[in-house]
Predict the 3D structure of the following.
Amino acid sequence: MNRVVISGVGAVSALGSDVPSLVTGIEQGRSAVRYMEGWNQYVGLRSLVGAPAELKNEKAIPRKSRRSMGRMSIFAVQAAEQALADAGLEREEIGSGRAGCIIGSTMGGAESLNETFETMLPEKDLSRLTAMKFFQCVPHTAAMNVAQYLGITGCVMATSAACASSLQAIGTGYDIIRLGKQDVVLCGGSEELHPTVTASFDLLLATSCGYNDDPQRTPRPFDSKRDGLVCGEGCGILLLEEYGRALSRKARVYAEVVGYNTAASGDHVSESNRESIVLCLREAMASAGVSPRDIGYINAHGTATVHGDKVEAQAIREVFGDTVPVSSLKGYVGHTLGASGALELIVSLAMMEKGVIYPTLNLESVGEDCQGIHHVMKPLARDIRVMIKNCFAFGGINAALVCKRVEP
Amino acid sequence: MKQDMTEQEIIAAVNEVFQEDFEIERERLLPEMNIFEDLELDSLDIVDLVVAMQKKFKVRVRDDERIKSIRTLGDVYQFVLMLKNEGVTPAAQHWKE
């Protein structure tokens, strides 16, 4: 099996249009959550907060390429370009068929999906629909648009598993490079914020509704006053590369991907399941050949839902006890759903590089049901050699990825 | 379609579609321009051109065979003029916004 490293990163988030603005924002303890003007026109929508990213410089993408892109694809193209530049790879190097692109999302572009049905349904008339709506609405819109834009001719795939989408994308990229099927894969996830997206969680009583007047205080992962998730948007892309290739071109290496597992609970469509999460974490570590005491940091899924946080804390306690530092980044940028695994892994790699663990924003008093694990509530200096990233999605889908620092 | 539109108004309205929907600079919008070779529209753009023209002129032309023979921007102007002269049934009710 080949070894696989991360040699480039790119991000668009509610804290800014690149990786430095994301990391700096978190370092400064800033929340990008705000009250969403206009959302109160949706009857029955209780959560009126979100973490929107700014769409900018999209005209830098030529019209012919841009026409098939909604917000999430534009974010994805911008993050992918950053990752390529960060890795020091030229476009010509990824058109050989040995380079792929795996980008996940919960669904296609929410804005385009809404526009499509708003256009078509009143008169049930298809003749008003533009040709481009299809390409913006399909679930693989981000992966397809990035591949088209960059001229990628290898494996192009879209993992769609809600909040586990991008971790599955990274895990799949890791697997196909290990198997020797690709040398380089741009992996990640992209998502766009839309009232109908928040509504889908709102209907399931999973959103934060009690902080509409005080948005920066929510979401509150693991906190006693947590009341649900806050949707965000953006894109995180990581360039995965076969170790020898990265080594030979003297690439900067963020970390080596050493373990991955995704497994379902087979139990409940929305409720997290402790046993299956425990199994997923253990299998991910077993595949990496590490044990819980080797893990220096756990980047939690921690969305701030009442049930999800409790079950994740229970699972972490069962596997790791209270010694391994744990934090969630959702308080800063909201829950970016299909992009969260990639965006939060990118920030975790920055923590690994800087030797500091960023705390869980808005965690002021740990919920009774979330105790017994090492919550990081203020910046913590720590040498992280190995870390694990968790993602747990609706549909009972769990995923965990283990990354190890590459010692010079 | 508004029956009192002048030729100049029709040309201006078609040009607006090319500027707004296809981001083509005004100075390139000359009647002799081939919409495929010069203005670089492709088959997908033609679908969207028809949708945009239907909206602009409140007509229903998606199945009009004459669209297939359009080559230049001048052909587009002529096509819309023809529609006007034929007194195409206003689809205003259909296009109420």
